[in-house]
C-alpha cells in the first residue's frame, strides 16, 4: 500500500513572541496568523508487513538524521494510539520547502504523515490523539492539523496549540530565500538575549504588540495598512535576525522596492515574503528579483 501526499508551507502574518514564563513550561507564548501558501513538499509513503515496526525516511536533497520529525511522529503515534504490531513505513520526501526557512516544512510533513498513519492503521485521528502527537513533535504541527481542509488560515496562540481557523484571503505572495540557514534555536537565543537587555533597562518587550483580538480585523484590511502606524503586524524575530544576517534586511528592502504592499520575515527566518495586490504584480516582482535572489510565487 502506498500514498502520495502534498504537504504545504505556511507563512506568519505577524508573529508576536512573548518572553518566557512559567505558564508554558519553558515555551514562549506566541500570537500570529498562520496561512498556508502554494509551495509543497511531496511525501511518498509505503506501508509493509515486514514485522519490523519501524519508520525509515529518505530525502532527495538532504541527509536526515536517524531520528527526525517523521520518525518522531511515527513513534509518538504508535505510543498514543496503542499500536503494537509489526507494520513498517518508509517515507520518501521530495523537498521544495527550504529547511530552516521559517515555513514550517517539517511540521507540515509531520501533520500530513500523521493523517496517513491514521488511515493506514484505521485509528480515528481524534483531537486528543492529534494534540498528544503534536505536543511531542513540534508546536507548528498543531496548525496544520487544525485546518479542516488541510490548507487555509488561522489565528494561532499559546505555544501554538490554540488554533482558530478563519476565512482565508486570496493573496499573492512572493517568497525570497536569502541563502541563510536560521535554526529555531539560534533565533530564540537571540530574541531571549534582546529581551534580557530590555528588561535590564526597564523597558517592556511587548509594549508595541498589537492586541490579539485585533489581528483578524487588521488581516481583513487593505494590505498596505498592515504595517502602518505603531501597532501593526510585526515579527518579533525580524529585528534580531536582521542584525545577525544582513541578507534578510536586503531581501525585505528589495521586495518593497519591487512593489510589495507588505513584507516581513516568516517564522524564525530566514525566508522573507512580500504580499502583492494581484498576480501580474507578483509575477513581475519574481522576474525583477530573480537575477539577485532565489524566489518563487506562492
Structure write-up:
There is one protein chain. The protein has 298 residues and is α+β, with helices and mostly antiparallel strands. It has 9 helices and 10 strands. Strands 1, 2, 3, 4, 5 and 6 form a 6-stranded mixed sheet that branches. A hairpin with a 6-residue loop joins strand 8 (262-265) and strand 9. It is globular, with a radius of gyration of 20 Å. The model has no long low-confidence stretch (mean pLDDT 93).
Characteristic key phrases:
298 residues, alpha+beta, six-stranded mixed sheet, 9 helices, four-stranded antiparallel sheet, globular
Low-confidence stretches: none
How much of the polypeptide forms β-strand, as a percent range? 25-35%
Number of strands: 10
Order of helices and strands: EEEHEHHHEEEHHHHEEHE
Helicity level = 25-40%
- Coarse shape: globular
Mean pLDDT: 93
Find the structural class using helix and strand composition: alpha+beta
First-residue to last-residue Cα separation: 32 Å
- Major beta sheet, specifics? 6 strands, mixed
Number of helices: 9
Based on CA atoms alone, the radius of gyration comes out at 20 Å
Question: What topology does this entry show?
Answer:
Elements: E1 2-17, E2 30-48, E3 55-59, H1 69-80, E4 88-94, H2 105-121, H3 127-137, H4 141-146, E5 153-157, E6 162-166, E7 172-177, H5 184-200, H6 215-220, H7 238-244, H8 246-257, E8 262-265, E9 272-276, H9 279-289, E10 294-297
Parallel strand pairs: 3-4
Antiparallel strand pairs: 1-2, 2-4, 2-5, 5-6, 7-9, 7-10, 8-9
Amino acid at each position: 500500500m502506498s500514498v502520495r501526499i502534498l504537504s504545504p508551507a505556511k507563512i506568519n502574518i505577524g508573529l508576536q513572541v512573548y518572553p518566557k514564563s512559567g505558564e508554558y513550561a519553558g515555551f514562549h507564548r506566541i500570537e500570529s496568523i498562520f496561512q498556508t501558501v502554494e509551495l509543497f513538499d511531496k511525501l511518498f509513503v509505503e506501508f509493509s508487513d515486514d514485522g519490523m515496526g519501524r519508520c525509515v525516511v529518505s530525502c532527495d536533497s538532504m541527509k536526515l538524521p536517524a531520528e527526525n520529525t517523521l520518525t518522531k511522529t511515527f513513534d509518538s503515534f504508535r505510543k498514543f494510539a496503542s499500536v503494537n504490531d509489526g507494520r513498517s513505513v518508509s517515507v520518501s520526501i521530495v523537498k521544495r520547502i527550504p529547511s530552516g526557512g521559517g515555513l514550517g516544512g517539517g511540521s507540515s510533513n509531520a501533520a500530513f504523515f500523521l493523517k496517513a498513519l491514521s488511515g493506514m492503521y484505521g485509528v480515528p485521528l481524534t483531537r486528543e490523539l492529534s494534540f498528544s502527537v503534536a505536543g511531542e513533535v513540534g508546536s507548528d504541527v498543531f496548525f496544520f492539523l487544525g485546518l479542516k481542509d488541510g490548507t487555509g488560515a488561522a489565528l494561532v496562540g499559546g505555544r501554538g496549540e490554540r488554533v482558530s481557523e478563519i476565512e482565508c484571503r486570496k493573496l499573492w505572495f512572493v517568497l525570497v530565500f536569502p541563502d541563510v540557514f536560521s535554526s529555531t534555536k539560534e533565533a530564540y537565543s537571540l530574541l531571549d538575549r534582546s529581551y534580557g537587555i530590555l528588561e535590564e533597562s526597564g523597558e517592556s518587550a511587548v509594549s508595541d504588540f498589537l492586541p490579539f483580538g485585533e489581528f483578524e480585523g487588521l488581516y481583513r484590511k487593505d494590505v498596505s495598512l498592515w504595517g502602518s502606524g505603531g501597532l501593526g503586524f510585526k515579527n518579533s524575530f525580524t529585528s534580531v535576525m536582521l542584525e545577525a544576517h544582513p541578507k534578510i534586511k536586503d531581501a525585505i528592502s528589495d521586495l518593497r522596492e519591487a512593489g510589495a504592499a507588505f513584507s516581513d520575515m516568516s517564522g524564525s527566518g530566514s525566508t522573507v515574503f512580500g504580499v502583492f495586490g494581484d498576480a501580474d504584480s507578483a509575477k513581475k516582482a519574481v522576474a525583477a528579483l530573480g537575477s539577485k535572489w532565489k524566489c518563487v510565487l506562492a
